[in-house]
Amino acid sequence: MKAAIRAKKRRHVRFNPSTVTYAEIDFRIRSSEFKSQVVGFVVNEAFGGCSVVLPSGTKFEVGSILQIKIGRLSPLRARIAWLRKLDEHITKLGLEYQEEE
How far apart are CA 85 and CA 59, in angstroms? Predict the structure, then answer.
């Protein structure tokens, strides 16, 4: 039931990556040069964002803005929309792509 309600709220269709797709994250949003600070795997993608599983060693905060580079694509600005700690070593982030300023 909850999944059906959540699906109605979504603005974009979700889909699974066709291959193992990795994401690199840079927490420095003002830098002109992208520098990967943490790497994870993309779980699902949509036009407006994606979810990524990452090692839990980095402190993540909902609302934080970062840069994400998915596979070979150019870096994009994204906001952490939600996070779930899956276990003591793995965190899943929901990222919402942001318009460039």
Answer: 11
10 Å Cβ neighbour count for 83?
A: 18
Tell me which residues of the chain have a pLDDT lower than 50. 1, 4-5, 7
Task: Encode 35-95 in three state secondary structure.
Answer: CCCEEEEEEEEECCEEEEEEECCCCCCCCCEEEEEECCCCCEEEEEEEEEECCCCEEEEEE
Q: Per residue in 55-65, pLDDT tens?
A: 988 888 999 99
The residue range of the domain holding 28 is 2-97
Its pTM stands at 0.78
What is the number of structural domains in the chain?
Answer: 1
Give the separation between CA 93 and CA 55, rounded to whole angstroms: 11
